[in-house]
Design brief:
It is a single chain. The protein contains twelve helices and 13 strands. By secondary structure, the chain is an alpha/beta fold. The strands form three sheets. The chain has a nine-stranded mixed sheet, with helices on both faces. Bound molecules: beta-D-ribofuranose and calcium ion.
Length: 319
């Protein structure tokens, strides 16, 4: 039976890839997509989710929950500076939702509808998940699995020297989640940094006669350009799709239960994830953390998943 999935996303190219993969994968039933501010402000994240869904038009539409916070609440203006919205390049048409439901409400209802069976895949700041856990304090014990893209164990951060972007954007929410009794799995930068989509692999993607190929070719090149200009790389990170793969092919990952928490106040280290890795830890293990991954297998599955999505989503309509 396909896994019931809630995707919580801040699209973002990386998140968009994960949405495409999950929506058309036979082993996943995406029951809801909820948006959160992060890579882009909350309203743009919600707009991008609607635009992607409208364009891809999957056979089974998930419920949609919208980011429910003001646009000026983030500590940084997106991952690569103000207003970088790679999905803008696709000029997706957006139909307004007739009665938009807040993300945290949708999360609570979908988990309650299938207790113990839903995997939440959190690919942005943990704002919505924290709000859902506040709204329904029993929820953590009803979630089957909470898979989180974010944090670091031994490597540096990617938004500050110490902090990973998603955790940095809402460290209090991240701390709340780390301290909650949910069955949590973290896929940190230590692992996701290792899987990149190279320019060579870009040429293996489905052709632009398919909807999926078309949209990938619209949104990926600006991201490749940013990575080239900022980091001198001919490749982009795909942290969120890698995290999604931990739900699809868990056998490609090695998890270890660690004792972790989040710094919420430090001047230099705010948003850093801290793990008790002393010889004799004093903290109690509370989160499963991916420590190793079969990188090649993960990238192969990712490309195969996008090809499958291209077949299932169908062809671009001629004007
Ligand atoms: C995370 O930051 C965002 O830019 C990506 O979408 C990913 O979720 C990686 O640090
Ligand atoms: Ca993301």
């Amino acid at each position: 039976m396909p896994k019931k999935i809630i995707l919580d996303v801040d699209p973002g190219v990386d998140d968009a890839l994960a949405i495409i993969l999950a929506l058309f994968h036979p082993e996943m039933e995406v029951v809801a997509i909820t948006s959160v501010g992060g890579n882009v402000p909350p309203t743009i994240a919600s707009r991008n989710v609607s635009g992607l869904l409208g364009f891809l038009d999957p056979d089974r539409w998930p419920r949609v929950g919208v980011a429910n916070l003001p646009d000026d609440g983030l500590p940084v203006e997106g991952r690569y500076g103000p207003s970088v919205d790679y999905l803008e390049a696709a000029c997706l048409r957006v139909a307004g939702l007739r009665s938009p439901h807040p993300a945290e409400k949708v999360i609570c209802e979908e988990v309650r509808a299938a207790p113990g069976q839903v995997t939440i895949v959190a690919l942005g700041p943990l704002t919505n998940i924290s709000r859902a856990f506040h709204r329904d304090p029993e929820l953590p014990s009803l979630v089957g699995q909470l898979l989180i893209s974010g944090g670091t164990v031994t490597v540096g951060g990617n938004i500050t020297p110490a902090a990973e972007f998603n955790v940095f954007c809402d460290p209090k929410a991240a701390r709340h989640i780390f301290r909650s009794p949910a069955n949590k799995f973290l896929v940190p930068l230590d692992v996701t940094n290792k899987a990149v989509l190279t320019f060579d692999l870009f040429h293996e993607l489905p052709s632009d006669s398919s909807k999926v190929g078309w949209i990938l070719r619209a949104i990926l090149p600006p991201a490749f350009l940013t990575y080239h200009q900022r980091f001198g790389l001919e490749a982009i990170h795909v942290h969120d799709s890698v995290t999604l793969m931990a739900a699809l092919i868990p056998e490609a990952f090695e998890f270890k239960e660690l004792a972790g928490d989040v710094e919420v106040a430090g001047e230099l280290c705010c948003g850093a994830t801290v793990f008790d890795r002393r010889r004799v830890p004093a903290w109690t293990p509370n989160i499963h953390v991916a420590r190793r991954m079969r990188t090649r297998k993960v990238i192969e599955e990712l490309i195969a998943g996008l090809k499958l999505a291209a077949q299932r989503a169908g062809l671009m309509e001629l004007p």
